[in-house]
Design a protein that fits this description.
Strand content: 5-15%
Shape: flat
CATH architecture of the domain at 254-348: Roll
Distance between the termini: 140 Å
Radius of gyration: 55 Å
CATH topology of the domain at 254-348: Chitinase A, domain 3
Largest sheet: 4 strands, antiparallel
């Protein structure tokens, strides 16, 4: 019992000691915090007081400086007024003297002369107006004349011409001059368009979706046309034309040409009957109009025209070129029927001069350049077209040509403006 009580007493004594230390530490910490806070407050108060005193001192100094400057300014003004009064008094005293009267007379003469000069300048006002008008004339630009000015920016003839060509008001082969530009109101139209476009930009109209799409489409159209024109100018040159002409020289050597007329019938018996009528003196053209099955030549009296051997089917060409002019070839058969052929003339041909085919070669080079350019761009950019699929029963049946016997000669070559690139520009 004694040991347990001793232990309890020692524990209680330890707790009391620990509590004492905690109380001491808390009190010390509180006193230190209070002292620090008081020191901070005193420092802040001193800072505020110092700033206040400094502001008061500056305010007092500024006020004293302002009063000093105002006083000096008033003193200077008073002194200047005194000097002006003294000078004016001396002037009044000096004018009646001999020197003053001379000075006044000379001054009056100069005043009269100056007034007369002003009157003369006012009377010549139109000349001054003309001089001012000439001063407003634009600088002289012989290469590209200036036709207008918009807010300090000069408008040249080349700008008017480009706008007129883009709008279709000027043909590609037409040259624009300053006189014709004003006579056709192209300058006024360009200026009005620029003013309206600027007003639209200021209103933000170019940011609307519909206008933006139209602007982008017009921009793409102009860029595409300019790009194609540049590539065509690079490809179509005098050297390239002559080089292609030399490479295609064999095409121009066509050989002999024959002019003939023919009658096509269905069987050999009809052909022999017509041959007998011709031997008997019947007119070839009349028989062709009455009995020929070739509707392409029947109305022409069977006239085929001039052709070379390469332009016809082998049987037709062999019979035509084996017959002398003015004679009738032996009867022969082709897939179109039996033919009675009369050769009316024959001539030898030479190579076509480059002058006669230059336009065709240039057109061929243009078409080939555009075709190659578009194909290359489509392949490079992997273009894919998604065409709408036709529904069942909506497809139009192809229109069959009428049941006519085809002509016995080859079709003419493609002409300018057709949608295919010809194999040779000289045909």
């Amino acid at each position: 019992m004694t040991d347990s009580k001793a232990k309890k007493n020692r524990a209680a004594a330890g707790l009391r000691l620990l509590g004492g230390w905690v109380w001491v530490a808390t009190r010390v910490t509180t006193r230190l915090a209070a002292r620090g806070l008081m020191a901070a407050l005193r420092g802040f108060g001193k800072l505020v007081l110092t700033i206040w005193r400094l502001a008061a001192a500056l305010d007092s100094a500024l006020w004293r400086a302002t009063k000093l400057l105002a006083g000096k300014a008033l003193e200077g003004l008073y002194y200047g007024l005194q000097l002006a009064g003294i000078a004016l008094q001396n002037l009044f005293l000096w004018l009646p003297t001999r020197t003053g009267r001379a000075y006044s007379a000379i001054s009056g003469v100069f005043l009269v002369i100056f007034s007369l000069a002003i009157v003369d300048e006012l009377r010549s006002g139109p000349d001054l107006a003309a001089a001012n008008a000439s001063a407003l004339r634009p600088p002289i630009d012989k290469g590209d004349p200036i036709l207008a000015r918009i807010e300090g920016r000069y408008v040249h003839l080349s700008e008017i011409e480009a706008a007129a060509r883009a709008g279709g008001a000027l043909r590609p082969t037409e040259t624009l001059t300053p006189e014709t530009a004003f006579a056709r109101a192209l300058v006024e139209s360009y200026v009005e368009q620029r003013l309206l476009a600027r007003a639209a930009l200021e209103d933000g109209l170019h940011r609307t979706p519909s206008v933006s799409r139209r602007v982008n489409a017009a921009r793409d159209r102009v860029l595409a046309a300019s790009f194609v024109d540049l590539r065509i100018k690079e490809a179509v040159t005098p050297e390239s034309v002559e080089r292609l002409y030399a490479a295609q020289a064999g095409v121009t050597a066509l050989g002999d040409e024959v002019r003939a007329r023919h009658i096509v019938v269905a069987d050999k018996e009809a052909a022999e009957e017509i041959m007998a009528l011709l031997v008997g003196g019947a007119e070839f053209a009349s028989l062709a109009r009455e009995r020929s099955l070739d509707r392409a030549t029947r109305s022409l009296g069977g006239e085929v025209g001039w052709f070379t051997k390469a332009m016809m089917t082998p049987a037709f060409a062999d019979a035509a070129f084996a017959t002398r002019p003015g004679e009738i070839a032996p009867l022969f058969e082709t897939e179109f029927g039996w033919h009675i052929l009369e050769v009316t003339d024959r001539r030898s041909t030479q190579a076509v001069p480059i002058v006669d085919v230059r336009d065709g070669i240039e057109n061929f080079l243009r078409l080939r350049t555009i075709d190659n350019l578009l194909r290359g761009l489509e392949e490079e950019n992997q273009v894919i077209y998604f065409r709408p699929e036709a529904e069942d029963g909506d497809e139009d049946d192809p229109i069959s040509p009428p049941d006519l016997p085809p002509p016995d000669y080859a079709p003419p070559p493609l002409r300018e403006g057709e949608n295919s690139v010809p194999d040779s520009p000289l045909r």
